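W.,

You were right to be curious about this one. When I first looked at the sequence I had no strong expectations either way, so I just let the prediction run and decided to look at it fresh. Below is the sequence, 307 residues in total, followed by the output.
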Amino acid sequence: MSGTLRGGVIGAGVFGGYHAAQYARLPGIDFVGVYDVHPDRAARVAMPLGGRAFADVAELLGEVDVVTVASPASHHAAQALEALAAGRHVYVEKPVATGLSDAEKVRAAATRAGRVVACGHQERVVFQAMGLLDIPEQPLLLEALRHGPPSDRSRDVSAVLDLMVHDIDLVLAIAASEPAAAEAEGRRGPDGVWDVARAEASFENGFTAILDVSRRAEARRRTMRIVYPSGAVEIDFVARTFRNTTPYALNADFAETPAARDPLGASIEGFLQAVRGEAPRPVVTVAEAIAALDLALAVEQALEDGA
């Protein structure tokens, strides 16, 4: 598919607004509008960007070539399937689904329709900007911490599917092995949803990932330490700094790269390039999103088993 693409967004929440703004600013795409079950919210997002508010998702799908699904996570799979059935290319925010069977339905529908499905694990482009995906050694250990203050966002899923799934995708991007087991402990919020979780995932080649997330922290913190046979990389994603004791050259100025300054924009551009045939794949494929979901669900099961 070449030429100007028509783009739209399903969901008028915070991330729907981010996606709409990207479609409105990127060259080679006409922003059509936003669908939401609350038309007034759709109007607040779409109209300042020159788009329309749609009260019917089928009407929006009839007027676009590509669409972002940025609704609550529990609706991702169903709306991605509806968009694929209409013949549209789909960028679905993470997680791709809340269950593996629904995620596999999305993959199968994309294959049948011959359409691109990208998933919103956009922090993969930050890893690329740093050069971490090019280190030839296999890591021994990865420790990630991702904490934030309480929010009303994403209460339909746990902190594992909301936050930890980001780091799971990054773990899988550098692990040349399959997960073997997962253990976890955590704490539920007042509504019974897991808001705090600490997981340890072991891999068949001996690599270990320790992931710590919280939606009940006093302040935002996000750090990562990756240990290799030759040294370690320690990253503070909030301060946008890192320390590298490996012999491999990494980009100390990664924070100034276009991808790191706007990872969502870089991820959407990758999606559009794949749609146009200018790239062989989006930044994160539906298959990779399913692998991240699979491990995230294993962590959730470990939480339940230990409750």
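Here's what jumped out at me. The mean pLDDT is 96. And, maybe more interesting for your project: The chain is about 35% helix and 25% strand.

Coffee later to discuss?

I.
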